[in-house]
Write a structure and sequence with these properties.
By secondary structure, the protein is mainly alpha-helical. The protein contains six helices and no strands.
Length: 180
């Protein structure tokens, strides 16, 4: 009975957060293809004299992340048959990107350079952004999914374990200059 609950919770977690997980990794892959990138903050500084987000957060990466979440939504549409899954994927992608931007904003305020580690926030902010935007927008109801606290907890534990591994793989593949 506990095993059944666990498997079901992991499955619901993957269905709920896969668009955000794909969206989070898509800008890194795309950065190797796109040579010209425009910073989301337009190079502007905050009142503390530091960049708002930094050069590593680009409009192109933001758009690609949202679209990648939407592509997962298209996959879900084909599997589950509800056209609202496309909207769900786009919202999850946008939420993930906004969560990542929030993390960059916080890192800049603390004087942490782009690309430097900031555990556990580097790992969890995109999940929290996707969770909050999906819940606040009401898109969860359109596709009849709800992330109960267990789904959120499992997602956070998953990314805390998987994020270092995926970063190491990206580093080994030459997609990232650092293994964190």
């Amino acid at each position: 009975m506990i095993l059944t609950w666990y498997v079901e919770t992991v499955w619901r977690t993957l269905v709920y957060f896969l668009p955000a997980m794909v969206a989070n990794g898509a800008p890194l892959v795309a950065s190797r293809i796109l040579r010209r990138r425009r910073p989301v903050d337009f190079g502007k500084v905050f009142f503390d004299g530091r960049r708002i987000f930094g050069d590593s957060k680009s409009w192109e990466g933001l758009a690609i992340g949202v679209l990648a979440g939407g592509l997962v939504g298209v996959l879900y549409l084909n599997v589950f048959g509800n056209s609202c899954w496309l909207v769900y994927g786009l919202v999850q992608g946008l939420g993930a990107m906004l969560g990542d931007l929030g993390n960059s904003f916080l890192k800049r305020r603390l004087g942490i350079s782009p690309g430097r580690p900031f555990p556990p926030f580097d790992q969890i902010t995109f999940i929290l952004g996707a969770y909050l935007l999906s819940a606040l927008s009401g898109v969860n109801r359109l596709v009849e999914v709800e992330a109960d606290p267990w789904v959120l907890l499992v997602a956070l534990l998953m990314v805390l374990m998987l994020h270092p591994l995926t970063n190491l793989i990206a580093y080994k593949l030459g997609l990232k200059p650092v293994p964190w």
